[in-house]
Design brief:
With 283 residues, this protein is mainly alpha-helical. Helix content is 58%, strand content 3%. It is globular and about 60 Å long.
Length: 283
Amino acid sequence: MLEDRSYMREPDFRGRTFSPIAILMMVLGGCFILQAINWAYLRSPLERHFVLDFEGVLGGKVWQILTYQFLHGSVWHLLMNLLCLWIFGRAIADQRGMRQMLTLFFLSGVAGALVHLLVASAMPDWRRAVVGASAGTSGLLAAFCLWNRSGEIMWSFILPIPTMFFLYLSLFISAFLTFVPVDPGVAHTAHLGGLLAGMAMVRWGIPEFAWLSRLRLPARGKSPSASKRTHPVATSSDPVRSGDFMSREIDPILEKISNHGIHSLTEQERKTLEAARERINRR
């Protein structure tokens, strides 16, 4: 139904639970708190079994290609990734659904690890431990830019930069600093892998996993409480609720938003959508 779409409903905060994105952010923050306690007091070597380490993976610790994404090297490192996850993750979840966002995030992280290991096998300067969710957020950034080609990203919340220019600039910087490692303390290799993975999944599709499809995640743009609402039967006297009006006027607009983002709408399409929303709100 039209009112089930997030961009056609008024905000409803009653009974709302934490979103999967918020939970993921809390998990990342919790992991960093444990790291900080370990650095300050315990000094346990346990952490080194979960960072992405070239020799460790070759030695059989293949789980590191996933676990390194939950660890961070500093507060600033963590906050930057949380900010990117909050901005780009929420936008993609609204446009494509929570499952696709989570799949995109974690597969981009895995791809970043694989690219790092591949480069490290040929360039010993990169054979140092890597931590962080930056590869995953780089994949989200790439997908967001490609799905919102006519949009803008506010650099430092001040300077608007076209999304495609921002993507190509990020790709160039990551590739250049991967093969000219003047700053091996930053895992540009993983950033590059994440960007390429995000672009590839936009081009060829995001894989689907049976175990993920069984999770009860919010549908695209739908709050947990939205599924509990009931809706009157549509009648032909209400053009917004009419099936003919929906299929002829509204559905193509919603499909366009799903495929290309809300920024792709024409002025007339925006007016049509807004008029439909106002009619629903007056019910």
